[in-house]
Amino acid sequence: MLALKASFNNLVLLTALAVSSTASAGNNSTELSVAQIQLKDLRTSQSSVSYHSQKPTVLMFFQPDCSWCKKQGKIITQLVSECGNRVHFTLVGDKGSKRQLKRELRHFSETIPSQQSTQLFARKSGGVKGFPTTLVLDTQGHVLAKRRGFTDEAMLRKLTNELSQGECALQ
After folding, report:
1. What does the DSSP 8-state code read for residue 107?
2. Given a cut of 70, is residue 1 above it in pLDDT?
3. What is the reported pLDDT for 17?
4. Measuring CA to CA, which residue among 171, 53, 19, 43 is closest to residue 102?
5. pLDDT tens across 87-118, in order?
6. Secondary structure string (H, E, C) spanning 24-89
7. Does residue 62 contact residue 56 with C-beta atoms inside 8 Å?
8. Which of the four pLDDT bands, split at 50, 70 and 90, describes residue 31?
9. Which residues contact residue 64 at a Cβ distance below 8 angstroms, ignoring those fewer than 6 apart?
10. Among residues 55, 62, 170, 155, which one has the least CA distance to residue 115?
């Protein structure tokens, strides 16, 4: 468990470097990317990409009846109110019908965009083997970091602080 946390800490630091860097590394066919993949919004049925073109995105995969997803969703709701202007947050439902996923949305804030995953999206993001799974995406939809399992509040706060380049103060 400690090795996993240390690994995610390193990913957070690499993410901060990648997001703040203006240099672009050429196209690498093996990199994980969800660029241009349209997902349907669970609340409106409109299609859009899961990332924001102006700020980094923290994306959480959730599934029906996932208690850890609900706990992490509460933390994300707090972070949206504190850091939503600097970091984009989104939820992506998987492993359930649209009806089941829509029903699960009652556990999450209405201010957080929520979409339904597709097989293509899950594959291009590196696969989802456990819930919640948290991804960090850059402004082009490239996966900068990925973590399977619950991410506690301290780690998510540190992540958003790094992604916002210190503008989302740690509390």
Report:
1. G
2. no
3. 40
4. 43
5. 999 999 999 999 999 999 999 999 999 999 99
6. CCCCCCCCCECCCCCEEECCCCCEECCCCCCCCEEEEEECCCCHHHHHHHHHHHHHHHHHCCCCEE
7. no
8. confident
9. 93, 95, 96, 100, 101, 103, 104
10. 62
Classify burial at 78, counting beta carbons within 10 Å of its beta carbon; exposed 0-12, middle 13-18, buried 19 or more.
middle
Dihedral sign computed on CA atoms, order 23, 26, 31, 37: positive
Please give the Cα distance from 46 to 18 (Å, whole number).
Answer: 30
* Distances 67 to 40, 61, 128, 150, 161 between C-alpha atoms, Å: 24, 13, 17, 10, 26
Tell whether omega for the bond before 132 is within 30 degrees of 0, i.e. cis: yes
- Location of structure tokens 């990925």: 146
8 Å CB contact between 104 and 81: no
Closest by Cα among 3, 136, 157 to 61: 136
**pTM to 2 decimals?**
0.82
Buried b (16+ CB within 10 A) or exposed e, 9-47: eebbeebbebbeeeeeeeeeeeebbbeebebeebeeeee
